Batch of 3 targets.
Target 1
Amino acid sequence: MLGQRLKSLRLGRRLSLRELAELTGTSASFISQLERGLTGASTASLNQMASALGVSVAMLFEDSAAGQRGVLLRSERPSLPPSDGCRKMLLSRPPLSDMEVYVGEFEIGGSTGPALYTHGDAHEMLVVLRGIVEVSLGDVRHVLEEGDSIEYATSTAHRSENIGSGRAEVMWIIAPPTSMRAELDQYRAWKPLAAR
């Protein structure tokens, strides 16, 4: 789903693989593989692509059929292909437009990517749902266990890594969304079937 959405957005903006690669600091072959579902992308790479395309990371996950119900089953969560031992899934959907909510599942040693990254100028909270996670904010590292949380600005360079002996799961809550306001207008118009 991510690959198809990425390709659709790229073509809709009349960008070649090479042009998007230049805008994101990646290679055309990487983007081609991502569009075909042959590889995953780090959170930092996804933020760069979303920014270059003028959308939020949430918009890369968008599935218009999923927005037809108010219930999101675990098995139907929009998900990115695993990258760096982390799989990121979108929980927030229309009509939520004031925040983005994601769940991340980390394999042992999995992380959000090899480097610290930033995205937008918003407030982010990470809650550890399971396992032990190290959150780096610049040069400062924080070790968090199940039930612990941390808050920071998305403009602060950050990274998360599972340092425990088992799988880890976290929830990210970002407010306001690190996306373009115009892209969120369609979320505001969405109504669950029960409200129609």
Target 2
Amino acid sequence: VPIEDNETRLHYVANVEGVSFALLVQELDPNLIHSVVWNLLRDMEKPFEYQGLTLDVDATAGIAFHPAHGNSSENLLRNAHIALEAAGSTNEKFAIYSPEIDPYNQRRISLLGELRNAIEQDGLLLYFQPQISLDTLQVSGAEVLIRWIHPEYGFIPPDEFIPLAERTGVIQPLTYWICRKAFEFKHSLSEQGFDISLSINISARNLQDPHFKDQVCQIAKTPT
């Protein structure tokens, strides 16, 4: 549907799926994109009346530029949707597409397959960051941190491979691997007379699994 029609410009809005809409804006200065999107989202989030009720709308946007992010409507919509998902996962109001947030670019596809192998072959590392008791000034626990040293890419930061694991379902075996190795470490310390607590970061995706609690309890009982 054209939302503006004159001799110099055509802007279109289309319902692409459910409550998702695509907005085509032509001849827009990229330097103005932030102010344009903020104004658009602000207008969309104004309360409105429907059948006697006042309704609020929460709007999020994903942005892709032509031709930088695609030469076809399919690629532009795909990349705008990826940006939209990235904005939603970080609680931002909008995001602009970039290869770094694309879970399907070549590097990420490669890393995904190799991450699965790294989990199966113990190719990941755990670091334990000490937690000090303010009362005794002694080590009372540790936070478990995962690290990945890739044979080709070197150090892969967790903020790159953890979101990738969350989007693709690999987060479950990854979290179980972390728990297993962490409990093995704790068991080893206990045998040496050291009893400390461990803090393990858990993804919200893990908590959506109804069997997650039972699996972790089982790993804690028999970590090796």
Target 3
Amino acid sequence: TAADCRKLYFKLKDKVFVGLIRPYESEPLEKFLQNALGEDTRMGDIKAPRIMVTATVADRFPPDLQLFRNYESPNEVLGFVNRVEPVADMPKPQEQLIWKTARSSGAAPTYFRPCGAFLDGGLISNNPTLDTLSEIHALNKALKVANRENEELHLDLVVSLGTGAIPIKTVQVIDIARPDSFM
């Protein structure tokens, strides 16, 4: 429930965001996530609802978006191989530990150290709702091509939790023109 999530968050902040020095220690966060989500629970253990979590693959240039899922990706439905070299020690998305998925997605620079090759998903996916809608569209198209229309997704609800908005302030326009007296 929402009340349970709220209680969990307040426990998290008291155990994880300790002290003034950042980045914060990763171990308390990892222990908290393991206790809350289970040490051995995998993404594929959750059958419903379908879940997608974003992370940034930061061990390459340019960085890439990683979608942790508990379902087949559109490429898997079509039998395609991912164009990006997979991260060496990463299991298939359905086999990924849930606590590690959460840790990878929340590895915000200046707050926590990277989780292996992963950083905060918001570095690449700063509008995860759009990425989710794009994923649903691509998955439905793939299911149609694979003659699996009965598995198509029909969106019931989107929950998008943000951290607020920065108040707008008037600032001076930056003028990059070279001054005439410079020559």
